[in-house]
């Protein structure tokens, strides 16, 4: 039933959802002078990335990394120091980082840009009218940016057992115990390593055949070995069939499809996301969903109702904060400047912030092989790189994928892999040739040299051939 409303208010743009995508659209449109309303249900801006996603997970991983380095003291000629873990103190640090960044998403900042910030749950009354609390907002154009929520599998006994998702995880203050992580995607991998390094006994249960199944298979293998070296019990092909009560400290027993069991005191469900569309009355607006329950959009981010756009997790096709921001830029061009800009995801980077990090852009070697056939891939290992050895961080590699003399994909697994990605993102985006990387001088000794090393492998095969040797001999005989 519709609440009694005050008279309808007219806006050029109504943005629903104040997370990464919605904030980007609203702030730019407001600063460009449009009349913008931003509706956010939760009572604070920032969305998942700030409160229960990217930011707290990276802050937690940092504490875990410091704990790991303390244990690794002897690798660097220092006394080993077993870290004393105080989960309450770790939680406070995570909270402090979130709070510092919350200042960027202060509603007053957006109001100063000319954005009307309304804290209420929005729903459509018709294609142009949105109800927000007791207000009715008429949007000439509307942007859906309502994000996603954890997708929890229907496993008998799971609800009764009780479990954490990313929404609970960053409030955990209890002393380390045992944790079973269900799901071996980015959330499962990052959090399994973080909790293990913070003293928890962790079992990582991945239904698929390998961790991070979207990544290069060698990357998955290196990551698995690194997690196991940390002490995470990694089980792949592990489908949880049922959760039943366990004993004493290990309160839960997870029965797997292969007849074995895993036990833990706490459960973390990290099995993917579902787009947040419930309660929006999208039918009233004529907005259709795709087969996965996400809002269907075209490459201009337009939904089936052409004046309504969508960005971020609610439409996908991937779930990254930087993708939501990129799509926001496409919406600004279409909805504000009326340019027919299209999203191009050919060079969309992604990073899993485990140690080693797994960073990727473009096509993996397997994808390129399937798509084109005539591709080659070359790999350089951090174990052969001077700076990696100096840092004591020699796990991992860079693998570049080439087709017809162009770089079409890159995977980097290793120290600060995410920071090494931009030059490779530019290469894939600009369809650069290997020589564009080879001819650039890279400072020595840097980890970024790894890309050049992989390119040298590409040239190595071509350069040190009998024909080239003959040519060099001929030039040196003939030219004085
Ligand atoms: C543990 C974890 C770690 C992650 N780490 C990374 C990372 O390192 N890097 C990365 O790029 N991505 C990461 N992600 C993904 C990233 O958080 C999301 O892709 C990103 O937050 C999506 O932004 P969004 O704007 O689409 O949605 P959100 O940030 O979820 O914002 C949606 C907003 O809409 C509001 N809303 C929902 N319904 C309504 C309604 N009816 N009316 C009004 N408001 C509504 C919600 O309250 C919310 O504030 C991580 C995710 C998780 C779970
Ligand atoms: N660093 C980052 O950029 C980052 C970090 C975390 C999350 N994210 C985003 O958040 C999204 C969600 O991440 P996620 O890891 O929850 O989801 P995901 O879909 O990427 O991975 C979930 C994994 O769980 C496994 N799984 C599913 N059901 C299972 C079951 N019943 N038992 C055991 N395993 C099961 C699947 O095989 C899959 O590999 C990702 O798509 C990612 O884009 C990004």
UniProtKB/TrEMBL annotation:
UniProt key word Protease: no
Keyword Ion transport: no
Keywords: Disulfide bond, FAD, Flavoprotein, NAD, NADP, Nucleotide-binding, Oxidoreductase, Pyruvate, Redox-active center
Co-factor binding details: Binds 1 FAD per subunit.
Binding site residues for FAD: 58, 146-148, 313
Disulfide bonding pattern of the chain: 49-54
Domain FAD/NAD(P)-binding stretches: 11-322
Positions bound to NAD(+): 183-190, 272
One of the record's GO molecular function terms: NAD(P)H dehydrogenase (quinone) activity
Similarity field: Belongs to the class-I pyridine nucleotide-disulfide oxidoreductase family.
Name of the molecule in the record: Pyruvate/2-oxoglutarate dehydrogenase complex, dihydrolipoamide dehydrogenase (E3) component
Organism: Thiohalorhabdus denitrificans
Lineage: Bacteria, Pseudomonadati, Pseudomonadota, Gammaproteobacteria, Thiohalorhabdales
